[in-house]
Amino acid sequence: MAKPWWKRALDSGHYAxxxxxxxxxxxxxxxxxxxxxxxxxxxxxxxxxxxxxHITGGVNISSAVSTFATSENANRTSSHYVVGQDGxxxxxxxxxxxxxxxxxxxxxxxIGIEHGASxxxxxxxxDIQYWSSAVLVRYLCNKYAIPxxxxxxxxxxxxxxxxxxxxxxxxxxxxxxQKIRLCHHFTSLPLPVML
Length: 195
Ligand SMILES: [Zn+2]
What we know:
A hairpin with a 5-residue loop joins strand 4 (81-83) and strand 5 (89-91). The chain has a single domain, classed as 3-Layer(aba) Sandwich (Lysozyme-like), CATH 3.40.80. The strands form 2 sheets. It has a 6-stranded mixed β-sheet with strand order 1-5-4-7-3-8. By secondary structure, the chain is an alpha/beta fold. The protein has helices at 5-12, 62-69, 104-109, 127-144, 156-159, 173-188, and strands at residues 29-30, 38-39, 50-55, 81-83, 89-91, 98-99, 110-115, 153-155. The site of zinc ion has 4 residues, from loops. The site of zinc ion (ZN) has 4 residues, from loops.
């Protein structure tokens, strides 16, 4: 069977395909998670007040995307968004639906974002990945009126009942939060007045 477009795009490093149904306009595409891997839901904006940050455990997001996309995923996991090391973003679950990423009570109120990175040396998140994720988080926080702070933007390990090293010690929280706030400040700047 021929590879699906998103698999070819990921493998080739070419992410130009657009014209998709992602809610986030800067996403490269919407790659639907298998229906077994998320819970269809009709969350209203008021139901969503958290963003949960994850790392996949490897730099290549292709395997995470494949895992979320197949009904053979025994853990039935998914996330709303996946961000790669080159800053590419794929949406996999609609924001109104509950992705399976952080335990059922957290899933009910949050948006989950996976990042292709690990805690091994040389597999840290990249600068462009942090920036791309920051722009995405700023979009989500603006859309759902989520405060830009560490009470509402959390790591998986901070809410997990079992110990997860996710996103773990390689994740630069201070720098990441600074980028999110800079995105917010930049977006809120008034337009220059031309005289
Ligand atoms: Zn996680």
